[in-house]
Amino acid sequence: MAVTGASNVTGEVWPIGELAGIAHRHGAELFVDAAQLAPHRPIDMARSGIDHLAFSGHKLCAPFGAGALVARRARLDEREPQLQGGGAIKLVTLDGVIWADAPDIHEAGSPNVVGVVALGAACRRLLELGMEAVAEQERSLAQRLWTGLSSLPGVRPLRLWPGASTDRVGVARFNLDGYRHPLLAAILSAEHAIGVRHGCFCAHPLISELLGVSDDEIARLRRALGGAPSRSPRRRAGQHRAGHDGVGHRPARGRGGRDRSDRVSRALRVPPRARRVPTGGGSTRLDYPPPACPAGRGGIASRRCR
Ligand SMILES: Cc1ncc(COP(=O)(O)O)c(C=O)c1O
Asked: What is the pTM of this model?
């Protein structure tokens, strides 16, 4: 079973110990994607019951692209390598290859020495600071951010488990009524020197779920983008979202039909009818009318609307 340690979309920390218990009761092993968790929280793999874990150096303040996969030896030995190349083999013949034992089998090619040195230095520095101290500092800064955001009119935070006292890393995901995300990000950057990540974080299924986008609407979007029909329609929210009590629940927001579709269009500020514009060579792109001018805003917003 593979889960994220902390959501890169909502920042919510997943109940790893409970999930490990469920996986192990059913004879499965637990893999944790700790890209968002490792830089923010102490992780005790043995105590939490994590069997395998991966994390990225660049999220730990380590430059040069190294990351780590921590896995049980037996699993590493039984896998074919994802990348094939020098150093990963015992013997190559004209009709086959005998792979090296782990970890060499998974480390083909010239090693990223600089990246590994940087990753080691970043890990050492975080350990010197103490991950509990890092987590505490982050919690207090994040609390200030969430409190400030929720006091702003029109700001709508998005969370998987809105009412729960789930631990969260310092990610704040929100929509602001009246603004599309690229424009809002540009305003925050140009006028307030605040950098944000806008868009869907390559997590479109989760964002669709949080915004209540219907399967029909997703199917329409797939068609508009030239994609084949989905072979695996999403299950309804109540079927695959569960609180920490393990009981499936529907989010408080209303769902279903036309009402939901309108609400999503409003939330995304996507005009219901985009135009398909030919771009040559048989390709087309979707052209959206500009967003309504946000009243009372200066700077980029009003310049664009003029
Ligand atoms: C949860 C999660 N997993 C994986 C990744 C990708 O990591 P990398 O950039 O090292 O491929 C990210 C962020 O980009 C992430 O947030």
From this structure: 0.74
